[in-house]
Design goal:
35% of the residues lie in helices and 28% in strands. By secondary structure, it is α/β, with parallel strands linked by helices. The chain has an eight-stranded parallel β-barrel, surrounded by six helices.
Length: 251
């Protein structure tokens, strides 16, 4: 049985880790290098580092910061934000990232997924999908959730898989930062429709929420930010709770 993964997410703006609610009202959560080092030593299975303003500000992810984080950690590490070409990915992987995450650029140029998978291998390519419910349907949003599209979450996820993505990071914008639990119905549908791993994101508030997303949402991994950054949940305590609920984790 594959173990379920716990992934702290470091949202980066102007070189600092930040966290908001429903993608808004950002507050400072600390130095990303120090946080990455702490998580790597305290039970995290992977890290995700997202430069949340890179796409909006039309600049590239902070490769220097990636180098510093990579020097500190010995666990797999995904980097996203402002990635729009094979060249961008090449720089980040050479800087020390294990995987890259693309979002807006994949929607605008779906062929990019094929090109990246062909060049670097599917295992390196995570496609992040931010979606919210509109008139009962899950619609994909771009540019840090600011730009709605007509794309259906489930149809886009299937296309992403078929184009060669190795993983999908699904964030429910409705649940993000609310600490009210993950979007488990949507996650379960994604998990059953697809054969690549699904990372749950948006809504973690309690240990039970992680239990629920692995059992009810059938997620392969669960990503969270503020509950870890502000020491509301300890990762090793969380993993013991998951193990008590017969969920396979790496201790």
């Amino acid at each position: 049985m594959l173990t379920k993964r716990i992934i702290p997410c470091l949202d980066i703006k102007n070189g600092r880790t930040v966290k908001g609610i429903n993608f808004l009202d950002l507050r400072d959560a600390g130095d990303p290098v120090e946080l990455a080092d702490f998580y790597a030593k305290n039970g995290a299975d992977e890290l995700v580092f997202l430069d949340i303003s890179a796409t909006e500000e039309k600049r590239k992810t902070l490769a220097n910061l990636v180098i510093h984080v990579a020097e500190k950690v010995n666990i797999p590490f995904t980097v996203g934000g402002g990635i729009s070409s094979v060249e961008d990915v090449d720089v980040l992987l050479k800087s020390g990232a294990d995987k890259v995450s693309i979002n807006s650029s994949a929607v605008k140029n779906p062929q990019l997924i094929n090109d990246l998978a062909a060049k670097f291998g599917s295992q390196c390519i995570v496609v992040a999908i931010d979606a919210k419910q509109m008139d009962g349907n899950w619609k994909v949003h771009l540019v840090g959730g600011k730009v709605p599209t007509e794309l259906d979450l489930f149809q886009w996820a299937k296309e992403v898989q078929d184009r060669g993505a190795g993983e999908i990071l699904f964030t429910s914008m409705d649940h993000d930062g609310t600490k009210a639990g993950f979007a488990n119905k949507a996650l379960q549908k994604l998990s059953r429709n697809l054969h690549i791993p699904i990372i749950a994101s948006g809504g973690a508030g309690t240990m039970q929420h992680f239990v629920d997303t692995f059992i009810n949402g059938e997620a392969d991994a669960a990503l969270a930010a503020s509950v870890f950054h502000f020491k509301e949940i300890d990762i090793m305590d969380l993993k013991k709770e998951l193990k008590n609920n017969k969920i396979a984790v790496r201790l």
